[in-house]
Every structure is written in C-alpha cells, then in structure tokens.
User: Fold these one by one.
Assistant:
Number 1:
Amino acid sequence: MKYSATSRQGRQQQIYNSDGARLVVGVVPILATSKQVVLVSSRTRPNEWILPKGGWESDESQGSVGTETGYVNVLQKPFIEESALREAYEESGIKGTLTCNIGTFPHTKHFPDSDIPTCEFTFFEMEVTTLCEAWPEQGERQRGLFNFEEASKLLSHKPLMLQALLKCSEGLQ
C-alpha cells in the first residue's frame, strides 16, 4: 500500500449503501509488542479519544462503485481494507496488518424522521507494527497508547467504538 504525506479531505469520492448511509471504516489498533491500544484525539473535540476511522472512498473499491448512484454492495468490494489502513495512517501514523473484521455497526444517529442510520461503520482489528514519527494529521490530532482497560474507559462516550473494542481479540480474553 502507498501512503500519502497528506490526508484526504472532502466527501466527493465517498461511498454510500443502498439506504443512503455513508460507509465508514475504522480500526482497533493494537501494538504487536505491548498489546496497547492506539487511540487518537478527535479533530472536533480534542479532549476526547477515539479509534481511527473515516470514509470508504470509491477509488479504494475494486474498480468503479458499481452503480451510477454511488451505492455499493459491501460484500462485493474486498478493498475496504485499503481504506481502513489509509485512515489508520492518516489519523494516527500507524502501519500494520489487519488481522480480522470485527464487524459492521449502524450509527446511532439516524436521518430525520427515519430509522435509517446516517452511517454504517465497519471495524477491523489491526496489529500495529510501526508508529511513524510523522503522519498527515499530526498537527490536528494527538496519538496515545493505552492498556485495554484505559482504552475502554476513554471510549465509554462512544458506544459504537467501545463495542468494536470489546469485540476485538484483546476484549474477548
């Protein structure tokens, strides 16, 4: 995978599911050596810690999006992993290997007057092998290393992310 020195901005290439929910990918990054969890500060709320995540973009899927409407069938697109690795690097300056798909979670926020979630998150467990000294969003975010219990407490304000953390291999032990 090729890593860029700058992070992507905007949602021009964003992929949506057939209900109109934005497809978001993220990682539960665990250091291979110490088993610490890597969290990043939120861009909009710098005092809150979150898992690295962001939009799955059309050039990271296999070929075209599949339809003129911009919708995609996630099960037919194996390159969601590329987006997860890109987001992990851009937001937290980490590199490694995705070890498993933790699952897909609907966002708790819904479109007005609807039960359709605004986003659908897919999280992967990531074995982190490299902590880069510089990364694209370094000036906008902090990176922190936490043991599993600390990470769980820090993510308690984000139930969806906490659920992903608890479903990773460290959480199942």
Number 2:
Amino acid sequence: MTTLVTLLVIAAAYLIGSIPFGYLLARFWKGIDIRKYGSGNIGATNVWRTLGKGPGMVVLALDLLKGVTAVLLAKQLENTDIAVLGAALAVMAGHSWPLWLGFKGGKIIATGAGAVLAIAPLPLLLAFLVWVTTVALTRYVSLGSILGAISLPLWMMVFQYHKTTLIFSVLVAAFAVWKHSSNIKRLLNGTEFKIGQKKS
C-alpha cells in the first residue's frame, strides 16, 4: 500500500506541475498564445515581459504554489523521503514537460523554488538572496536563476541536510542549469533579455 500511495502522490505531483498557469493566464488575459511571444516560454519571466508586471507576478505566485502544494500533499499522505523528494521532482517535471501542452513547458525555477521551500526553507531563502543580488546587479533574471540554483546544494551542505536531500538539491541545480541552456548561449553572445529592456 505504501508503494501505491507513493506512486499516486508522485503522479498527482506531476499533474499539479502540468497546470500551465502562464499559458492559461495569457489566453484569458489577452487571448494570446504566450509561446508565440518573447522567449516562447510559459513561465513568469516571459509573461512579465509580454503582458506586464501584474500578470507576471500572478504567474510567479501560482507556479510557486504548485511546488509547495505538491510537497505538502506528499508530506500529508506519505511522509517519506521517496514520496516527498519524488513529488518535488515530479512537480518540476510536470512544469517543464506538461501533459496538456505537448510536454513543452517552463524552466522550473518558480515551481522548483516552491518545492524546495516546503522541504528546506532556509537554504531556499539564501538561494533566493543570491538570485536577488544577481538580478539587482546585472538585470538578468536568467543569470540570477542559474546562480541561485547552483548555490542551493552549497547551502544544503552548510546546514548539514541529509544526504538524500543534498542529492536532490544537486539534481535540482543541474536540471535548472540544463533548462537554461538557451539563456546561457544568449548571455554569452550578449543577446539575453534584461529587466527594463524595451521589447523589440
């Protein structure tokens, strides 16, 4: 029964992650397919760039909530490392490869942050401070996301989290960097979008 509950929790987490809030909000707000604008991503950054700060913040909050909800559900129904960390990875996978959009989704940062917040709030807070500092200094959201993600395992080690949670954080960091590969290319050639930059 425990194995079945764990599998159901992970499946539910994937479906929660698959809810494409950025896509849905853009459809209802402006009647557009957000995938055809800006970076083509359904996440909060592209919604912010395309539709403005308000819609972007709404999507950010909802995507964050997906991660929190999936992990809290796992803790409530089957509070084991496999269920909780599996749900965290599954909700991120759902956001990145949503069932409802042909498995083409976002870059996991907000949803991943929500999941980590429910597991290790202090390391997440410090990773967020890395993000804030980087974005404030460079105006590159993507660079802040990459560096914040990379810092997460370091904070896990500082606070001596369990080995399985540390491994989980390494996977999250690697996943986040990989999902930002196109951003890394644009950062290197100087074409990455900055906060405050006018839309072309």
